[in-house]
Amino acid sequence: MPHSQRNRISIIIPVLNEADRIGGLLSTLQSVRADGHEIIVVDGGSNDGSIARALPLADKVVIAAQGRARQMMAGTAQATGDRLWFVHADTIIHPARLGDMLSTITACPLWGFFPVRLDSHKPMLGLVARLMNLRSRLTGIATGDQGIFITRSCYRQCGGYRDLALMEDIDLCRRLRRYGPPFVGHVHILTSARKWEHEGVLHTVILMWLTRLRFFLGADTRKLASSYYARHDQ
Length: 234
Prior knowledge:
- Helices cover 46% and strands 16% of the residues.
- The protein has helices spanning 19-28, 30-34, 50-54, 68-78, 95-107, 123-139, 152-158, 168-176, 194-199, 201-216, 221-228; strands spanning 9-15, 38-43, 60-63, 83-86, 91-92, 111-113, 116-118, 149-151, 183-184, 189-191.
- The radius of gyration is 17 Å and the shape is globular.
- The termini are far apart.
């Protein structure tokens, strides 16, 4: 039975050249659409056929300026649900876990995230994921890979995503903590390990921590994005 708008979840997925991955994620989410929730794909200028793959599998495909923050802002403007769930295009959701994830989101009083796992069997990347989850629990700050979810009213109260070139999720969570601690789901969300595997685990961890440190010290996010994306996918 379709959900009322009060319990409706708007799943917002920013995309940039993800034709090889977006179809799998959206196919998994088709049962969510059948249950009355909505899927909004926000494309930031793909030239690989991502839009064509998304069109038959999403409720809305929105074209926006490139950049995750701008894309998620554009998607939120089109959302009709009472709850917002921001999911990266390289996220992998097991169909058997989807129901528990939706229940977590609808039960959340304000905002939250899921603990993350990386789609790799390398022991070092398993350790990276565990440390990411520990850091997020201790600090109350999640990253976009962790599938941040939030009630629409809380999103509006905190000011939502801001037009930052990088670290938009960190910025959002810092403001959300003022309203209460995050609601952490018990089901893990699986995300791609491609950036670690392509650039090397140690290099990527150091780059991420240095980027976060520079952000906390007040660096311009446009400069951070320029150096970060010079070697990384969006």
